[in-house]
Amino acid sequence: MYKIIHYMKSYTKIDKIKFIEEFKKRGIVFFNSFDVKKIFDIKDDNSLNHLLVRLNKAKIIKRLVKNKYQFLYAEKMPSDFSIANFLEPFSYISLESALSFYGLIDQFPYRITSISLKKSRQIKIENKIFIYSKIKKDYFKDFIKIDDFLIAKKEKAVFDYTYFVYKGLRSKTVLDDMKNIFFDKKIKNYLIENADKNFYGFLKRYVKL
Fold this sequence. Notes:
The protein has helices spanning 16-26, 33-39, 45-57, 80-87, 95-101, 154-166, 172-177, 185-194, 197-206, and strands at residues 30-31, 61-65, 68-71, 91-93, 111-116, 121-125, 128-134, 143-146, 149-152. With 209 residues, the chain is of the alpha+beta class. The strands form three sheets. Strands 4-5-7-6 form a four-stranded mixed beta sheet. A three-stranded antiparallel beta sheet has the order 1-3-2. A two-stranded antiparallel sheet has the order 8-9.
């Protein structure tokens, strides 16, 4: 998803300016400790950890979660959506965040919602909460890349939210507020074609497809 990192031989001494110049040259936005180790040919883990701590204190990098970092001197700062993708690679933006992105509901500025194949969880970074909701493998599909992040297609975002209402994991109130969207032929057909038997039964009762 992000620019592939090509590795180089070490500097005898890694100062802040060299680090910034090298990461800018490579167009790096997100990285982990293994990337730094390879780029600068660092052999000693203690030296690597000391470097990362020093750069974090200097606000050259920001530790997001364990072994995941953001380069703060990148030419273009990443969106919250791209950070969400980086924190959990097997995920795409959906549910409230995608519905807001498509203008179907009001925004949820402090909650970035994604669909994942892994166990549901949330990560808080400063004033942002990144929420990952697990979905079954058959429904992990139909997302697209916009700018530097992956997001559900409009019809899939509606499908995902409706499915989570059916599973009792999201509020029916939001679904009630956007019921007119089900008159959209493309969205209606997507729901009918992709819902399994039980979910389709819910759609017929609740949405009146």
